[in-house]
Amino acid sequence: MEEELKILLADIIIEVQNGKDYMEALKEAYEIIYKSVNPSFNYDEQFSLDTCYRDIPAVGMGKLTVARKLLLEAKK
């Protein structure tokens, strides 16, 4: 899974290594992960809704955890 995410998030990882804000990069990484499951997913639109109306693709928490790990490592 980590290798798959390194490829999927390669551009964002490089941007974080070059000084991009971690929280902004994390949001973008989550959006990419969600879009890998549902290409029509709109992060800003869905997270602006009340939680009971959100339609967020099912993604294993492990992917989100590994994404955070990769970005934190890139930040160092």
Can you summarize this structure?
This protein has 76 residues and is mainly α. The protein has helices spanning 2-8, 10-17, 22-37, 43-47, 61-75. The two termini are 22 Å apart.
- How many E strands? 0
Look at the structure and give the mean pLDDT. Answer: 94
Question: How many whole angstroms does the radius of gyration measure?
Answer: 13 Å
Task: Indicate the proportion of strand residues.
Answer: under 5%
Task: Compute the number of helices.
Answer: 5
Distance N to C terminus = 22 Å
The percent range for helix content is 55-70%
Largest sheet: none
Low-pLDDT regions: none
Order of helices and strands: HHHHH
Written description of the protein model:
This protein has 76 residues and is mainly α. It is 67% helix and 0% strand. The chain is built from five helices and no strands. The chain has helices spanning 2-8, 10-17, 22-37, 43-47, 61-75. Helix 2 runs parallel beside helix 5 (61-75) and helix 3 (22-37) runs antiparallel to helix 5.
What keyword list fits this structure?
76 residues, mainly alpha, 5 helices, globular
Blueprint of the fold:
Elements: H1 2-8, H2 10-17, H3 22-37, H4 43-47, H5 61-75
